[in-house]
């Protein structure tokens, strides 16, 4: 299943400037999702991070990865309208900088979901090289 940016916004609550997923390429609700973020020089954060050597902030790479996981978790109708908030992150690694012109390819798999707590493992890559990986713990709350 493929989702456009407009369809992604029907599932997760994020909006500009914090919507960091341009398209979902694959979706198995409650199991896994694959998404992309096209990183352009026009991103607001490059003005200050860093003016002479633009690098996408690691926290925003993590946020993009988590949003892909959020789409997989929140796609079923019974979870729509929930707000996924971070409860923790483990095993976070950054392996390579992400720069303008890169396409961030993110795979997120739901490891566990019980009631209102979920765990997601995600990896992000550029040109088949892993640039970041992390395990996220989410709490699903009312919006």
UniProtKB/TrEMBL annotation:
Its EC number is 4.2.1.59. CDD domains: FabZ (cd01288). It is found in: Cytoplasm. The keyword Lipid metabolism applies. InterPro entries: FabA_FabZ, FabZ, HotDog_dom_sf. The active site is at residue 49. It catalyses: a (3R)-hydroxyacyl-[ACP] = a (2E)-enoyl-[ACP] + H2O. It is an enzyme of class 4 (lyase). GO terms for molecular function: (3R)-hydroxyacyl-[acyl-carrier-protein] dehydratase activity. Keywords: Cytoplasm, Lipid A biosynthesis, Lipid biosynthesis, Lipid metabolism, Lyase. It comes from the Bacteria. PANTHER family: 3-HYDROXYACYL-[ACYL-CARRIER-PROTEIN] DEHYDRATASE. Belongs to the thioester dehydratase family. FabZ subfamily. Involved in unsaturated fatty acids biosynthesis. Catalyzes the dehydration of short chain beta-hydroxyacyl-ACPs and long chain saturated and unsaturated beta-hydroxyacyl-ACPs. This is 3-hydroxyacyl-[acyl-carrier-protein] dehydratase FabZ. It comes from Sporomusa acidovorans (strain ATCC 49682 / DSM 3132 / Mol).
